Amino acid sequence: MLGIKTSPWGRIQDIKSFGIGIDFVGTASHGGFKLDSKRNAQVPEPFRNKNGWYEEDCEAAFVIMSFPELFSDEQVKSAHRSAKNWYPERYERHFGVVIPLEESCEKRSIAFDEQNHGNFVVRSAWGDWHDNVPKGMVGVYAKCQKTGEEKYFLVGGEEYKGRNAHGFVIDLERHQEVDPIDGCKAAKYDGIIESFRKGGQS
Questions:
Q1: I need a labelling partner for 43 at 20 to 30 A (CA). Which of 13, 140, 150, 195 fits?
Q2: From CA 122, how far away is CA 197, in angstroms rounded?
Q3: Span 97-148, pLDDT tens digits
């Protein structure tokens, strides 16, 4: 068992052992696996974290795939799905396979960014609660990655609801460009602006 009291996520509240050198720790806010140096050296290089810590949401998959005999068949299957989804480059490098786009959110996100490198893609949005956004519309801030240009537009509320999970692409012929929306910086720092880039889509 671990002889430490803290983790990357705070003070350790509980520990569950999965075998010699493999422990799962829980804290008030998060958790994950801690491997001792011997066990960590057994994790394949593409999946190995040098410090031996693996957070519970995604990186736990690396531990489960490395020691499948310690986990259920369903947990192992889930770990492979998670690794393909969020760490496709590492998975492909280790297993020598090519993951289809439909099996990896990260690969779809990369493909979306590549396809829209020269387009204006929305980064932040305001609903019609904002004084400068007409009823039924959404005010958006968009950026073109290729040129670095930043602009503001109005998009129909219903159209915006049907946006792609990886981003909303502005149609310069249809979407009305507007002046910068007042309160942009204040709203950003107050956490009011909705961001639907990776990890924040609603």
A1: 13
A2: 8
A3: 999 999 999 999 999 999 999 999 999 999 999 999 999 999 999 999 999 9
Longest Cα pair distance anywhere in the chain, in angstroms? Answer: 63
Distance, in Å, from the CA atom of 103 to the CA atom of 81, rounded to the nearest integer, reads: 8
Q: Give the global pTM.
A: 0.75
Q: Which pairs from 81-88 meet CB under 8 Å and 24+ separation?
A: 82/58, 83/47, 83/58, 86/58, 87/47, 87/58, 87/61
Catalogue the long-range contacts made by 3-7 (C-beta closer than 8 Å, 24 or more residues apart).
4/34, 7/31, 7/32, 7/34, 7/53
Domain ranges within the chain, ordered by starting residue: 6-110, 116-189
